[in-house]
Amino acid sequence: MERDVLLPCEWIVNHMELRQLGDSDLRITPLGIGAWAVGGGGWAGSMGPQNDSDSISAINAALDRGMNWIDTAALYGLGHSEEIVARALQQRSRYPYIFTKCGRVWDERGRIGASLSASSIRRECEDSLRRLKTELIDLYQIHWPDPDNEIEEGWSELARMKAEGKVRYIGVSNFSVEQMKRAQTIAPITSLQPPYSIVTREVESEVLPFAKKHKIGVIVYSPMSAGLLTGSMTGERVANFTHDDWRRNLPNFQEPLLSRNLQLVEFLRELGQRRGRSPGEVAIAWTLSNPAVTAAIVGFRSVKQLNGIIGAADFRLTPEELNEIEDRVRAYAAA
To answer: Is 76 noted as a catalytic residue in this protein?
Structure first.
């Protein structure tokens, strides 16, 4: 069925700032709903089992609190995340903006592969539209630039689908500067989605400055480093990750970085307490302080987790506090 999308003015009553995304007419809130964990367990890339009822309640609570966009992907839960997003929205009279991704495919045994061929992307788009129960995707993104030699073919197909009205805008995720330049020769890039957090900063030197210079909107993912900077992560919890939790293989969740990162979290907790904020809210606010960043994707599994991070939408760190964080990061790195 055709969606009745909430217009930006309808969010004003929720007192949440709105920001223009790149060259589009999408005005989005600083925080968006991340639906990675909503995909649940049983697939490569999972964050472990997840209760669908908790996901639906949390999504609706976030929308009620003012967030006006959801970011998901066909890959998350091998289609399950998109289905849960649709279930969460089915009782709402107005929809948020829906962002999803393509370029990752899987077979009947759940083995994940990559394709940016035109036929594959077209099929993925139709499948996402069906799972999301919508006739239009507001932002359709290439999930990974893989295979690299198919970037031009894939991006050309996204541009065609935009011209056809299947998607409103098109963006990229995890692209390098050179890969974005290649895409730009075919069609404009509305947005880039890179990983970015206090402990994941590889995109600072080239990628973010390029996006800012070319007026490409930036919606960062994992601003709390996959839950590491929320304030609820501990060494014991990491040790007890389920076997299918992909985070157990990340360097930031392994020694010697894990202990250093947990020390940093305690500093974020101390800084946040001065302002009545959680460590996670401090971490998210840090990413939003970068002038190249439009908004941040925040993931949560329950209403309780949402309540611990939603304050980041209107929380801004002072220059002094930003310097304190930089000094502490450098000190831990030197140690």
So the answer is: yes
